[in-house]
Amino acid sequence: MSLKDFLTIVFESDNAIEKAHNLGIIDMHETEHPEEKILRKDAAKILHLYMHNVLHIKDEEDISSASGLKDLYDCRVCVNHIAQVYLKGIMKAREYPGGLLIFDSNSEITASEAKEAILKMKG
Amino acid sequence: MKLSERPMEITDKAYRFDLFNDGIPVPGKKCGRLPAMGWNSWNAFGSGNTEVLTKRVAERMVELGLDKLGYKYVVLDDGCYKSERVNGLLSNEEEKFPSGFKALADHLHSMGLKFGMYNDIGTNLCAGAAVGTCGHEAEDAQTYIDWDIDFIKVDNCYYLWDNATFSNSENARYTYAPAIKGIRIKGCGPEVYLDAVTKGIISGSGAVITEEDGTGFVKGIGTYDGTGPDRSPVGDLSSELRFSILADEDCEADIFVEYATGREPEIGCWLQVAVGEGDSAGYFYDDLLPESGSKQTFIESGAIKIRLKKGENTLRLMNHRRQENTLCSYAELVKGFEDAFKKGSQRKDIILSICEWGKTQPQNWGYKVGDSWRILNDITFQVGADGDPGHANWSGDYTTGVTNQYNKAVIMDEYSGLDKGWNDPDMMMIGMDGLDETMCKSHMAMWCMINSPLMLGLDLRRVEKGDWIHKIISNKNLISLNQDPLGVQAKRIYSSLEKENPDKIYLRDNKRVDILAKPLADGSIALAFINLDTEDVTEKTAADKDLILKYLRGKMKDADAFENAKAYTVTDLWSEETKVNESGVFEVPGLKACETAMWRIKPS
């Protein structure tokens, strides 16, 4: 799924890229590459900032319970985005044998995962 | 530009692990600087910092009088560059920083402030922009000089030669030796096979003897990853597999290593072979070995020619590349600056703030290239934005919290100094949500006592002259400890949880009181009693002059005057109340939760 496709579903609009940029959800360099594949960490960032900037939903203050995700701290600049969408139940972790929970932030988000997350976010 | 496929060849011993303790910095690294003071945009605004916000914060620094107290550097963190190079060069993100960085530098300099920027030794910055310095050190150094920077913080994401954040996890192959079963030696006497488990000697810490399917071998030959808080920074942080070899005469031999490769922590592909230690060590192999196919499949290497001396020789199989690679990458940037100055650019001081998060134990080598080195991953991941102060913890998960950073930094004093540089427990979180006034006072006290760089991380538009935040960050008494010209980080001389070696033992249980002592240039000392617990402590805690001298004697300006003083003038560094103490015993009756009592003690 591309960044543009993902944002189009989030904003339910054809000019979603522009709207997301104006709302501080994506940076200028992202507006220049709307065809880029969207990774789970990118989706977490967009959904978190949409909740924060558009829906004005308050962040979870204590994110320590998200540390059950083995790879939480692998992505320094997206730790909080991942923790917020995970703790609010918007995006799920992926469970591996032995009960290992991984967010899999560098893997591509599937279309069904994206639709489910956006649906949950919008209540 | 095509990037190299492997780390650079090390031709100069100065960059070797064996010479980390030689005390010699690389050309261009200046010593004698006190910890830098200023403001960094990350904790306040994350990637959302802009020119407008930066200028406003800079104005507040001046309006609040912080510049007069030493807060000079205004540092742009991640998120300020265009996402790709333009004609091979760095450039500004035009929406956020429309005037460009030279104009911003000129503006800040005209205010009497200094200008700092951010980059990375990898291919990309942590926030993603593909403008890391890797392979571009020379042109980037020239660009930064053209932009008239005074400071640069250099991160470690997307690093090619280690399994750093956003790097290929298989880069661990560069930083760990293969699993080793044994070596065959041919020449210099009868051919022998030396089994790693029965004849090898593991030095240092980290390597372990393992048995799988009836095969014994040694793995974990490399350097601990210090990004997380689990390991003490003191003591051996790497290990080698050694063999003692007796030679009847000076001679050459071939060794054949029986090994299995992996691409993960503990079992890698890169092997270093040396004979002897220190300056006289001879290096005979320093490269990837052909991959064995799996980490269970042991194969024999080709011949590695070594030279032995008559008598006992120490043959070392090792991998110190985690530290050496990172040192070399930072050194490339320092060289870039130095070359630009030599080519005619006006020489100026540029502070290098190493930000590899303690991953490669920079306390061992950081002094060679930098002015400070981060000791852990970030102090908070819940950074602010315009209108959002962000969130901080007193004590949190992983590395996130004032005490998480302090607990490691407080036993690292022997690695810092005017002749080296400073341990950096990250930017301060004073003024962010989650820390009350008492916690913020202790946070400031800790960072001042341990000679950390004092980088404010809050949105200064939220601060007013005389409010509690301003009173803390502008406390001249505390700042003077951090900036004391003697330049000695405080030592922990007592902890309620560790009576024997409080200066060396890594403590992470916060149900305790620590006492730190710091010698000062005028012959006095600073003493801090820190209650790390979130419960009040009602018992008395004390330090007498004998305890202070036990730990500080060799570091004090005049230890004899302190020892023989008939009385001491004790000044509370918060209230400025002064008392005379004739007993030489300094005590607090109790401490509130997270409270720090701070005194300056002058012999009279």
Descriptive account of the structure:
The complex is a heterodimer of chains A (123) and B (604). Chain A is mainly α. Helices cover 44% and strands 5% of the residues of chain A. Chain A is built from six helices and two strands. In chain A, strands 1-2 form a two-stranded antiparallel sheet. The longest helix of chain A has 14 residues, at 40-53. Chain A is globular, with a radius of gyration of 14 Å. Chain B has 604 residues and is α+β, with helices and mostly antiparallel strands. Chain B folds into three domains: 29-160 and 324-482, Alpha-Beta Barrel (TIM Barrel), CATH 3.20.20; 177-318, Sandwich (Jelly Rolls); 491-603, Immunoglobulin-like (Sandwich). Chain B contains 13 helices and 28 strands. In chain B, helix 8 links the parallel strand 18 and strand 19 (422-424). The radius of gyration of chain B is 26 Å and the shape is globular. Chain B starts with 36 loop residues before the first strand and ends with a strand. The mean pLDDT of chain B is 97.
Which short descriptors sum up this protein?
heterodimer, A: 123 residues, mainly alpha, two-stranded antiparallel sheet, globular, B: 604 residues, alpha+beta, TIM Barrel, Jelly Rolls, Immunoglobulin-like, eight-stranded parallel β-sheet, six-stranded antiparallel β-sheet, 13 helices
Report strand % of chain B.
Answer: 15-25%
Question: Can you summarize the main beta sheet of chain B?
Answer: 8 strands, parallel
| Total domain units of chain A | 1
Q: Write down how many β-strands of chain B occur, each being a DSSP E stretch of 2 or more residues.
A: 28
